[in-house]
TrEMBL record:
One of its GO terms (biological process) is response to UV. The record marks W329, W383, W406 as: Electron transfer via tryptophanyl radical. FAD binds at residues 257-261, 298-305, 396-398. This is (6-4)DNA photolyase. It catalyses: (6-4) photoproduct (in DNA) = 2 pyrimidine residues (in DNA). Belongs to the DNA photolyase class-1 family. Its EC number is 4.1.99.13.
Length: 516
């Protein structure tokens, strides 16, 4: 690479200074360095699948989290003698224009597996290499390069966690220390006629910042991420004993897991740094849990879904997705809206959906409960619809992980024990018999006595009156009877599975004939 020439660092995810190989490479030997983030209107566009007019692909909470992360990144870059150049528009066009305008010789950005970026990156790479620009595009969002794992498996995607672990082994980068800081950055050159702005506010992007649903308690940015990591790992015993299915999904004052997911999603926190910090703790304790239940195990789940999604065409659809069971889901908009808007009449489900809307984050088992309820548990609605609602409202909404888990929870792929259905009544009660979680997120049920809090429709009218909550008026009646609906769901899943079995055996008969 030409020493003293200009480089462009294109931030997308990876909104951090620590462990950022693309940024480091861009800085090395460059005369000028242009750190760019493009605000992509794609995510603010009206959502064709949304019910309420004006709602966008990404909800207010996630956009706010992103903008906070950008402000933090800008501050960090300024401390290193640089700043973040924010632009707005179609990223492919903007980056191509900047490359020309600034006479860039080196273009650096983190490798991204999301289909949206894979398509975009092909365009940008073609454009840049036609101009003889050097491209550096390292894998640093995940612990492993999904392509390497698939190659090690003879070109096939590993579809179980155990086979993934075997193929993965230890990450190659663990042998050399990660770079956790930079001391300075080359200056920014003349920006010419490119339109540079400060980080916009949510208002400037067309969101209503007073919307009471958009007030997540979690703030974006690398500074927050590293502080949160430190707090999460301060109690070494807790880390050593971490067992995923054991946590309390109803804990909201102090969540039972780290809540690092939104920081990992945007790359405010490096998953490799997280992994290494965990290994350092494991070395100092006598005993620790292991994958799949340990904290390192959680990070490996993340890589597992990144790998599966990378190697599976149409991963985010049922149709044309070879690893997805074909199930004749019902098309019932009324029930879908009830689920989305926290009006199913099951307080445990509605409280979780309210937490999703208000916080953009829920505990893993809480996500299990509402995803199972929507699909194979009670409502028999397509997982793609639920995935879509999650994708818009989660602050950690992540293409690979979200789709992977919806495939899992709907028993469409990875997990097939469709007989095991979460009860929307008794599951939460085990953790939170008083119903504190429900009372917090559904204040309308605040005064409901605890023996009725999970099934308020069973409370005598006198109790409802005293609790100031008439079922069917102040809070909905249940949209289904769980006993009837779950039985029906099991039956339909059984039928669909049998049909899938038949179809796949027909396919293989045909394949055999083709071979003959
Ligand atoms: P911790 O338990 O502290 O785990 C640490 C990290 O490990 C997480 O931040 C996450 O990056 C990773 N991780 C944990 N569980 C999983 C998992 N099951 N699969 C993959 N990675 C995991 N997670 C997302 O990050 N984005 C999503 O869009 C998303 N959608 C989901 C949809 C459904 C239907 C379900 C059931 C789960 C989904 N998850 C998603 C996975 C999981 O629920 C969250 O990652 C986790 O609850 C985040 O909280 P945490 O950071 O405290 O997790």
């Amino acid at each position: 690479s030409g020493s003293g020439s200009n480089s462009l660092m294109w931030f997308r995810k990876g909104l951090r200074i620590h462990d950022n190989p693309a940024l480091e490479y861009a800085a090395r030997g460059s005369g000028c360095l242009y750190p760019v983030f493009v605000i992509d209107p794609h995510y603010m566009e009206p959502d064709p699948n949304a019910f309420s007019p004006g709602s966008s692909l990404a909800g207010l909470n996630r956009i706010r989290f992103l903008l906070e992360s950008l402000v933090d990144l800008d501050l960090s870059l300024r401390r290193l003698g640089s700043r973040l150049l924010v632009m707005r528009g179609e990223p492919g066009e903007i980056i191509s224009r900047c490359l020309k305008e600034w006479d860039i010789k080196k273009l650096c950005f983190e490798f991204d597996t999301d289909p949206y970026y894979r398509a975009l990156d092909v365009r940008v790479k073609n454009f840049a290499s036609a101009d003889g620009i050097e491209i550096f595009c390292p894998v640093s969002h995940t612990l492993f390069n999904p392509a390497d794992i698939i190659q090690k498996n003879g070109g096939k995607v590993p579809l179980t966690y155990q086979s993934f672990l075997k193929l993965a082994g230890d990450p190659t980068w663990v042998a050399s220390p990660l770079s956790l800081g930079l001391s300075s950055l080359p200056p920014i050159g003349d920006v010419g006629c490119c339109q540079i702005t400060d980080v916009p506010t949510v208002n400037e992007l067309g969101y209503d910042d007073l919307d009471e649903d958009g007030q997540t308690p979690f703030k974006g940015g690398e500074t927050q991420a590293l502080a949160r990591l430190q707090i999460s790992l301060a109690d070494k015993e807790w880390v050593a004993k971490f067992k995923k299915p054991k946590g309390d999904p109803s804990a909201f004052l102090k969540p039972a897991t780290t809540v690092l997911s939104p920081y990992l999603k945007f790359g405010c926190l490096s998953s490799r740094h997280f992994y290494q910090s965990l290994q350092n703790i494991y070395r100092t304790v006598k005993k620790h849990t292991s994958p799949p239940v340990s904290l390192v195990g959680q990070l490996l789940w993340r890589d597992f879904f990144y790998t599966a999604s990378f190697g599976t065409p149409n991963f985010d659809f049922m149709r044309g997705n070879l690893i997805c069971k074909q199930i004749p889901w019902d098309d019932n908009n009324e029930l879908l809206v009830a689920w989305r808007d926290a009006k199913t009449g099951f307080p445990w489900i509605d409280a979780i959906m309210t937490q999703l809307r208000k916080w953009g984050w829920m505990h893993h088992l809480a996500r299990h409960c509402v995803a199972c309820f929507l699909t194979r548990g009670d409502l028999f609605i397509h997982w793609e619809k639920g995935r879509h609602v999650f994708d818009r409202l989660l602050i950690d909404g992540d293409w690979s992980i979200n789709n992977g888990n919806w495939l899992w929870l709907s028993c469409s792929s990875f997990f097939y024990q469709y007989h095991r259905i979460y009860s929307p009544i008794s599951f939460g009660k085990k953790y939170d018999p008083e119903g504190k979680f429900i009372r917090h997120f559904l204040p309308v049920l605040k005064a409901m006595p605890k023996q009725y809090i999970y099934e308020p429709w069973t409370a005598p009218l006198s109790v409802q009156i005293k609790a100031n909550c008439i079922i069917g008026k102040d809070y909905p009646k249940p949209v289904v009877s769980h006993d009837v609906a779950s039985k029906e769901c099991r039956r339909k899943m059984g039928e669909a599975y049998a049909l899938n079995q038949k179809l796949s055996s027909q396919v293989s008969d045909q394949d055999l004939q083709n071979l003959r």
